[in-house]
Write a structure and sequence with these properties.
By secondary structure, this protein is of the alpha+beta class. It is built from 25 helices and 20 strands.
Length: 667
């Protein structure tokens, strides 16, 4: 199957190829020994052919014995046809059109992504997050919050307070009571710091990192987040139970009634008792008693949820249910009393299913900032970034309080346009380059941001990204090949569309002329007007015979029988009608064409046959076969195109490089 797979890939890449190699295969001169081909004097390296054939081999073929000589030669011929068309597209300037440049730039952006430093770091974070998702953690915390716009002194005071609380915990203090006393988390008044179970990406990153590095029973040192300092106590770690779907009944507590709690408790207990009776249905009780208007008419059904998505009491009760249909005892939450019924459970989804969701969540939280910082640090090291501290500090002190629009006036007035800001490799970026960058940037800046720092950091990032892309184009062979594959593929499509496909579809005069020149290809065989009823249920055969035997074949008879069995016995028969080739048809080939009605056994089934007029073999009308003519006409246009291109661009093959390519594919 290798032959088909490899050829199929190249055919799918270069769309329509298939001519055999024409012309001579003279060896190259010494100066061209490294090239596999020259087409019209333009060299093509053997690595491009090796790349395309290797990419076309599926996973099962990577352990096979390689590619045969015949397969290799066939693919080389296809490759030559492909490159001839690309050469012609370039000669016609199709690689300079606005449409091509726009489309190729769009492809480049997508193709580049997997090769970037950023992608490998993101992939690492994705895998780490999914690995953590295999577990859920139950933890409590005490938050010592920063005041608004804290000073360094404020931050130190908060840290000292957090250390004091940690010390009290270590000296035997009850964590939950200390949370009630000290925590600035408003929810601590209800939950005494207990956050319930959570998994990856449900807490801010520093909190998550700390919790996943702790064992049950451990208490953390103060953990810094944007909210302040957290003291974290991990209570439990469990395998992730996945997702659950439940229905519920809600009984609210009337906070304005002094007896509201007792009344709600009594009501929910009565409902729970009612549920146990065999005469009741869950949906009926939900409709009559639940005080959740959003789910009451749906039988109390709630959306699927995972750990960390609901309030802890509700969530724990839901995940404790084990069998669909199981009903929980009443539980209390801040919303009132609930009775839950388990509908269904499902395990954590695969990485592939969750990948896009995980990526979206990572790019929305602090991890995205961390990834950007890491990317820039790696780029600076890899591409020899050197900052001119003196010049940058000078501009920073003058420009940080100015708006972006005032930068140019200051820099030009003070003659600082030629000042070096940084170097990447051997290339210097000056204040003038910064101004050019600013002219292209449209992004609005927040009023509380340091203006120069913000724009300078963006300029550095853009310059480093350009250095990385240049490095990919220069040094990453896989990226070079992929980029060339897509570039040439777009050009091939453009040329084929212009020279073959549109001509084949739009030129009706040429279509008809091609049809007349090749009329022998478009012939009807001997045919007969026939109606064949294949009997699938023999108990219904007599009724079919009664309706069809000794009747003339007419449209009315066919319609009558089709209506009958469609209404009464749709699975009893299978029918076929029209002008059918009687010499090759497996049923009609056994028929006596002189009998208008007959019964024939074929392929294990009884067939009832009505025959009408016989039509002798003869040419088809153009409209009867127009689609096939257009396809054949397009193929002929392509053959003519390739033939012309072989004359226009002489093909030479370097036999030494050809043999090297063959050996490489069989190693």
């Amino acid at each position: 199957m290798k032959h088909r797979t490899t050829s199929a890939y190249i055919l799918s890449l270069i769309l329509t190829l298939g001519l055999s190699l024409q012309g001579s295969t003279e060896p190259q001169s010494t100066s061209q020994q490294e090239a596999l081909l020259t087409i019209g004097g333009k060299s093509i390296d053997k690595d491009e052919l090796i790349y395309l054939i290797s990419k076309g081999q599926g996973p099962s073929e990577t352990v096979s014995s390689g590619i045969s000589r015949e397969e290799f030669n066939e693919n080389l011929d296809l490759f030559i046809n492909y490159k001839l068309k690309v050469r012609e597209a370039e000669a016609q300037g199709l690689d300079q059109t606005e449409e091509f440049l726009r489309e190729f730039e769009s492809f480049k952006e997508n193709l580049r992504a997997p090769f970037l430093i950023k992608n490998s770091l993101e992939e690492g974070e994705l895998r780490k997050a999914y690995s953590r998702m295999q577990e859920v953690i139950r933890a409590s915390h005490i938050l010592i919050q920063f005041p608004p716009t804290p000073s360094k002194e404020d931050s130190l005071i908060v840290l000292k307070m957090a250390l004091k609380v940690k010390n009290e915990v270590e000296n035997g203090g009850n964590f939950n009571e200390l949370a009630l006393e000290y925590s600035d988390d408003p929810s601590a008044k209800q939950n005494k710091g207990d956050l319930g179970y959570f998994t990856a990406l449900q807490m801010v990153q520093p909190f998550e990192d700390a919790a996943y590095n702790m064992k049950p029973g451990e208490v953390s040192n103060p953990v810094l987040t944007n909210f302040g300092y957290h003291i974290i106590a991990v209570q439990d770690r469990q395998p992730n139970p996945g997702q659950v779907q439940v229905s519920h009944i809600l009984v609210r507590i009337d906070s304005n009634n002094p007896n509201g709690e007792d009344l709600a408790k009594r009501k929910v207990n009565d409902i729970y008792t009612e549920i146990q009776k065999e005469s009741t249905t869950w949906e009926g009780i939900v409709r009559n008693y639940s005080e959740d208007p959003s789910s009451r008419e749906k039988g109390g059904l709630l959306p699927w949820f995972s750990v960390g998505s609901m309030i802890p009491e509700f969530e724990m009760a839901a995940f404790m249910l084990t069998e669909p249909g199981e009903v929980s005892p009443p539980i209390r939450t801040q919303y009132g009393y609930h009775i839950l019924r388990l509908e269904e459970k499902k395990p954590l989804e695969s990485f592939e299913s969750l990948e896009d969701n995980i990526r979206s969540r990572i790019l929305r939280d602090s991890r995205s900032t961390m990834i950007k910082s890491q990317v820039m640090a790696i780029q600076k090291s890899r591409y020899n970034f050197e900052e001119n501290d003196t010049n940058v500090s000078s501009l920073r002190s003058e420009l940080n309080e100015l708006s972006k629009s005032e930068f140019r006036n200051y820099i030009e007035t003070n003659g600082e346009t030629s000042k070096d800001l940084f170097k990447i490799g051997n290339k210097s970026q000056t204040a003038s380059d910064l101004l050019d960058f600013l002219d292209q940037e449209e992004l609005a800046i927040k009023t509380n941001q340091k203006s120069f720092d913000f724009w300078y950091d963006r300029f550095v990032a853009k310059s480093l990204n350009e250095a990385e892309e240049k490095d990919l184009l220069t040094n990453n062979k896989d990226y070079q090949m992929l980029l060339k594959e897509y570039r040439d593929g777009i050009l091939l499509f453009s040329l084929m569309n212009k020279e073959v496909w549109q001509k084949g579809i739009e030129d009706s005069v040429a279509q008809k002329a091609y049809f007349q020149r090749n009329i022998e290809k478009y012939q009807w065989p001997n045919r007969v007007n026939a109606y064949i009823v294949k009997v699938l249920d023999l108990t219904k055969s007599e009724k079919a015979k009664e309706l069809l035997a000794n009747k003339a074949l007419t449209p009315e008879l066919v319609n009558s029988f089709e209506s009958y069995y469609g209404e009464n016995s749709p699975l009893a028969y299978q029918t076929e009608s029209g002008l059918l080739p009687y010499e090759t048809d497996p049923v009609l080939s056994k028929a006596n064409l002189d009998l208008p009605y007959q019964e024939i056994e074929a392929n294990g089934h009884l067939h009832l046959i009505l025959l009408g007029d016989k039509i002798p073999a003869g040419p088809k009308e153009f409209e009867e076969t127009r689609g096939l003519v257009i396809r054949d006409f397009q193929e002929s246009l392509e053959k003519e195109l390739v033939s012309e291109l072989r004359k226009k661009y002489p093909v030479q093959i370097n036999n030494k490089a050809k043999e090297e390519a063959f050996i490489s594919l069989n190693q």
